[in-house]
């Protein structure tokens, strides 16, 4: 039985780039859920009809929560 343990270099640029990409994607999804009614993938230019008139919640805590989840 071969029992090799795979280790991760948490200080590598590759790992940092993956974390950054995850954080950016999480922020993108969060903003889309908070502010958009339609066109979340921006397949066309945004129109005023795509944006919620009165979003519920606020952006203030979302970025911080995503940062904590990333780490």
Notes on the structure:
This protein is mainly α. It has one domain (17-70). Helix content is 45%, strand content 0%. It has two helices and no strands. It has helices spanning 13-35, 62-70. The longest helix is centred in the middle third of the chain and has 23 residues, at 13-35. The protein is elongated, with a radius of gyration of 18 Å. The model has no long low-confidence stretch (mean pLDDT 87). It comes from Lacticaseibacillus paracasei subsp. paracasei Lpp126. Pfam families: XFP_N. InterPro entries: THDP-binding, Xul5P/Fru6P_PKetolase, Xul5P/Fru6P_PKetolase_N. This is Phosphoketolase. One of its GO terms (molecular function) is aldehyde-lyase activity.
Topology:
Blueprint: H1 13-35, H2 62-70
In short:
The protein has 71 residues and is mainly alpha-helical. The protein has helices spanning 13-35, 62-70. It has one domain (17-70).
Structural key phrases:
mainly alpha; 0% strand; Xul5P/Fru6P_PKetolase; THDP-binding; aldehyde-lyase activity; Xul5P/Fru6P_PKetolase_N
